[in-house]
Amino acid sequence: MTNRLRPLKEAGGGISWDGSGTLVAEGHGGLRALDVDVDAAPDAALPLAVLLAFARGTSRLTGVARLAEKESDRLEAALDLLSRGGVIARRAAGANGAPELVIEGLAREARRADYAAHD
Fold it and tell me: Pick the catalytic residue: 43, 73, 114, 119?
């Protein structure tokens, strides 16, 4: 397991490829909330955020400032997708004023939300 996938394992989840080439994220016996810095692996932040929507408790992803500076504002895209999926998530200011993505796990009204491309 690479360091980039370690937060998935720490939350009690995992990822695998199914026979059709689809990436599957799943929890093993219930997912746990995490506080994790995603600055070193910004591309893993969005799948991790979706997985943590089904965790028990409140998760905080720090190191998300770079997400807003990508080809499009991925932090805003994550908030949009989570919100349309019935998940309670928000941008918050951390102790040092840097943005954080806060996700309230086990959303009661979680539902399917198609991804909307943001350029």
Answer: 43
Distances (CA, A) of 88 to 8, 15, 72, 91: 20, 23, 22, 11
What gap in Å lies between CA 34 and CA 46, rounded to an integer?
Answer: 14
Burial class (CB in 10 A: 0-12, 13-18, 19+), 114: exposed
Q: How many CB atoms lie within 10 A of CB 15?
A: 15
Please tell me the predicted confidence (pLDDT) of residue 89: 94
Q: Residue 59 class from Cβ within 10 Å (0-12 exposed, 13-18 middle, 19+ buried)? A: buried
Token readout for 83 is 């919100």
Binned average pLDDT, 10 residues per bin, the chain of 119 residues? 56 67 60 87 84 88 87 86 88 91 79 62
Active site residue 43: yes
Paired tokens of 40: 């070193």
